[in-house]
Design a protein that fits this description.
Blueprint (H helix, E strand, L loop, with lengths): L2 E2 L9 H12 L5 E3 L22 E3 L6 H4 L3 H5 L2 E2 L4 H5 L13 H4 L26
Parallel strand pairs: 1-2, 2-3, 3-4
Length: 132
């Protein structure tokens, strides 16, 4: 199984870019360690020219922005975060609030329609179109 460990490069060029493209075209499952190479991790999740498309990612300490935001998220595959003692003691917490969206976070606030409900009992929407 090919493995992608993060490489700090502003933009993939020449043989490095060809290697990333060959890995992606191989059809083999790819394991990314921390984050797929070519994915901007901490602020945007942007792809830096070319990025490895991993089948899955194993990261450490905490999930990063690049694991959650597009387009980086689609390059990660499922992300696994193993719990280790060093996660709690070696690294100070991030100053950034980062939460993965999940229905469990908002489902209780979402109005579920009653079985005898009617479309007009759920609220109204008004739209308008026209030419200036």
């Amino acid at each position: 199984m090919p493995c992608s460990a993060p490489v700090s490069i502003a933009r993939w060029r020449g043989p490095a870019r060809q290697m990333v493209e060959a890995m992606n075209a191989s059809g083999s499952p790819i394991l990314a360690v921390d984050l797929p190479s070519g994915n901007q991790t901490e602020t945007t999740g942007a792809v830096m020219g070319a990025a490895v498309r991993a089948s899955r990612t194993v990261t450490f300490f905490r999930r990063k922005v690049g694991h959650l935001l597009l387009p980086g998220r689609i390059h990660c595959g499922p992300v696994r975060l193993p719990i280790s003692g060093s996660s709690r003691t070696c690294w100070r917490p991030s100053s950034r609030a980062l939460v993965a969206n999940d229905p469990a976070l908002w489902r209780s606030q979402f109005p579920f329609p009653r079985i005898d409900g009617h479309k007009y009992s759920r609220g109204h929407a008004v739209g308008g179109v026209g030419v200036p």
